[in-house]
Amino acid sequence: MKKKAKMVNFSLSHKKYVKKLKQDKFIVIFFRIFILVAFLGLWELLTYLNVLDPFFFSSPSRIIAQLGDMIASGTLFHHTWVTLYETLIGFFIATVLGYLIAVLLWWNEKVRKIFEPYIVVLNSLPKIALGPIIILWVGAGTNAIILMCVLISIVITTMTMLSSFVACDEGKILLLKSMNANKFQILWKLILPSSMRDFISVLKINVGMSFVGSIMGEYLTSKAGLGYLIVYGGQIFKIDLVMSATFVLCILAFVMYYLVSLLERIYKK
Amino acid sequence: MNEILKFDNVTYFYQTKDDEIFALDNINFNVFEEEFVSIVGPSGCGKTTILSLIAGLLKPSSGNVYLDGSNKIDTKKIGYMFQRDMLFDWRSVWKNITLGLELQKPKNLDEKLQFAEELLKKYSLYNFKNKKPRSLSGGMRQRVALIRTLVMEPKLLLLDEPFSALDYQTRLSLCDDVYEIIKSEKKTAILVTHDISEAISMSDKIIVLSSRPARIKDEINLDLIGETPLKKREDSSFSGYFEKIWRELTNEEKSENG
Fold first, then answer.
1. Which fold has domain B3-257?
2. For every residue of A118-155, which 3-state class applies, written as one string?
3. Which among B83, B84, B104 has CB closest to A180?
4. Looking at this predicted complex, what is its ipTM?
């Protein structure tokens, strides 16, 4: 409110500057939409003219028809929900557990040093390699998928948060110590709040990672879900189905990412 | 005047994996109530080590540090102000200056909060109470840091080059501000600095340290006339003191190099 009232008094050059900012923003948004429309239009056109074989490449209109069918039969909602459920649970467990482990490792330097090589190995290990073991241990199905999801995000959560905790300004720790703060107070008043920015980046990374986890899990073992639809569609050469599921996945990922950046905006205020 | 701090044959070694660094060699001095003492010395000589010993962040390798007659340092009696303001970006000015109260939860919390509010008003920061530190200038940030220290009502203030990160202009005026605040709140202060003029203009006593291992080279009592550090710089004996200390420090460097 205050800013707007002030703006009235600004000079012509400022008005020009603001106008240019608006123009730039418009250009960005315009091209974003333009690229999408051009891509879809070209795709539709090329498949319509049979330059691209719609059997292999599908087409926007076929995807829409496919989605329409699936919405009508209720299967779309079911499969989307299954994947979303696995992803959210995996995301939540990995974030909370990974964060807590990072706190624990920060708390005790010796423990941190002991576990360092294990974490490095776990981090570089492709988690998908653990698929068969996971299925043997927790059985095929939702649990295995969620576990895969957790494994993929948890190590990176712990590593990122731990390095953020450890990178905390030594001087500020000294300040708190000079104020007689105990270790818990240092953690609570300084380490955790000062690592909030990194925590939000971790959330953003984990959104992507959790989807990787749940789709990977569904590739390995599933009876439903978007990953299941993709694999199934591929096996029966129904590219429309594969594309439709991928499209829904895009939307889900976008929505989740958007929610996290909403959180970021609230935090920055 | 009462003695508030006493260094009694204090020696300190830093331990590292490959080395043992001899930082302080038999340091003896005392500080009386309401005195402003500066410690000057070549860089890396162990000035900050002395402050850390006073604050109880380090323990002497041998000898004793007595604060208020006791060699068990009560950190509540100490207020430590650092080179950088160390304000927490995510807290408002008010939340920053009441940080210590939040940590120590004193019984007379309401009184202290009121005191904090008074300090803000007195040193014209009240309008910024709910602002985040990033909207303040460097000088204002250091004033907030000083108030954060004063709110705890420490008996002894430790100032570790608190002006060195500021530009010259701000530095001079903040010097005056801090000096005035410390004198009007009747605080005892120990200032560590490498700026000789700053030390002369602010202190009642200057302790000159040698290079590592630090020994006390000289202890100079000053009696400059002037109400503020800036005024004191105009005193006729200012340059004499400056030259004396400057010579002592440069001799030190020569002997170190040669």
1. Rossmann fold (3.40.50)
2. HHHHHHHCCHHHHHHHHHHHHCCCHHHHHHHHHHHHHH
3. B104
4. 0.85
